[in-house]
Amino acid sequence: MAQDATVPKLNFGYWLDKAIEWGQATTLESQKDVCLHLPQLQEFLHQLYETIKHSGSTVAIQQFPLIGQLLGRLCWNPFVVGYDESQKTLMWCLCCLYSSEPQNAVELKANSWIRSLLCHLLSSSKWESNEAETSTLISALGYTSADYYCHLVKNMVVSFVTELRENQFNGLNIQGSISASRVNAVSIFCVPLITLPDLTPLLEALLLYHGGSSKEILCSEFLEAVNDALLKKKISLPESAVFSLWLRHLPSLEKATLHLLDQLFSIQLNSLEEVACVMKDSLLPQAASHPAIFRIVYEIFKNVLMETDGTSGVTTTIQVFTQLFLQAHQNENKQRKFPLKAYFPYRHQPLVRGLARRPFELPTTYWSQHLKHISDMLKALVEDTNVSSLTDLFEIWFLVACFGEWLDVAAEQLLKAAVEPDAVLWLLAFYYCPVNENQQRTQTMVEAQAVYSHLRMLFSCTDLSLKDLAAAIHKITGIEQCWNQRLTTHLLTNFLLFSPGGHKIAQECIYQITKTTDTSKEVYNLIIRTAYRFNHSAEENQRTVKLLNELLQNLTSKV
């Protein structure tokens, strides 16, 4: 057999004959012959790969009609696969034969066959169960089976990653770049192996690789599999790779956003710190620093808000997300930071900038003036004759809802500070009643002013009873509930939290107004937002913090 060791460089027929002769190397003679020819075979496979790597699957098969038979036979020979870089070269050759856009049943069948071979090459369980010779070979090499396959996988991954990174910025050099079909084939090969820890560097390299193609070169099954594994915490990838995944595959971003909302609404979270923690863990607030991701996420939020009729739980969730987004945006490198206009391109920019200023960024003495500024801009915008449709009005309302932190500050400042009540009340009235059809908002303003005046008069009283608040309570719990039931709830809850006499009757009063589930959720979300704001501000009031915690404990069972 030794005399055959020297052969022509690309003698395809010679190596096909050898592959048929060797079979799966089950005899001692065939095993010896395989070992004698392994260096030359590896050289042949490398040259074969260099010949077909830029030609495409159709041309490659036309040039070598029996290439599938040759590669298929070699893939099932454990001595060939176990030698040096032969396994890697076999896999690259198979990737070159893969049709990224199969045109007929034959190509579909060929793709399926290639996938099965690729999976087989990294499936140690199949080899160990069916090939006793493999164990012998591994033992002879001085490895345990686990070590051997671990080394194979690591070497393959390192090789793939190196080539992808070397070609990342070589898109203009056509001869030196990786073809889109090859990258597509590698992504398919990764699908059944997504959760393999050693594959993580390759997943990252693929997600960050774009090449010179305007079309998506990674297969959708790969992108979906990676996203599913991320959501189920089966794998962990760097933020840059996750963001790249969501930027290049819209369904994955949509699924990640809905998964986050489902998480938040399906479990009992006792504080907004816990909500913020779940959000940060999802990476979506950080990813939203990219305007394209931000706009998609907020479009989903908007749809959920419409489907739930603007329930306080959903708006609270959106407000916390917005605060985390602003935090991530402020922490961005100045050279990479996008202006706010990139996130809200069709909105009134002075209003966006005003709402985006966090309360803690301003002295508390300036809050009242800032609230009036926001209210004046908003009122001018809403009363603009160009804002005629309900869609336009909803877009403005949604912008205010996203930055709802200022609404809570508004309700607090109305009672605690010297403010222009009409401007601040109008801001709250617009939020709770954005549509002025049949003078609804006008009526809301009239009733809100009456409630406000009554509460403001009682604010300094230290000795209060429920009778003193009967009128406000009736507006919330009465049969003929007023237009501004939610606004009255907001004002009354803040009165109880911040007035000296309100602390004493807070528990009893809130028990009275939270007999219905909807009102319980409303009050719960108001209190949980206030607690979150207190925990993230320099303002300290131990009595209020203690009361907030007590109220949250009592309300948790109701929501």
TrEMBL record:
Pfam families: Fanconi_C (PF02106). GO terms for biological process: cellular response to oxidative stress; interstrand cross-link repair; nucleotide-excision repair. One of its GO terms (cellular component) is Fanconi anaemia nuclear complex. InterPro entries: FANCC. It comes from the Eukaryota. PANTHER family: FANCONI ANEMIA GROUP C PROTEIN, FANCONI ANEMIA GROUP C PROTEIN FANCC. This is FANCC protein. It comes from Machaerirhynchus nigripectus.
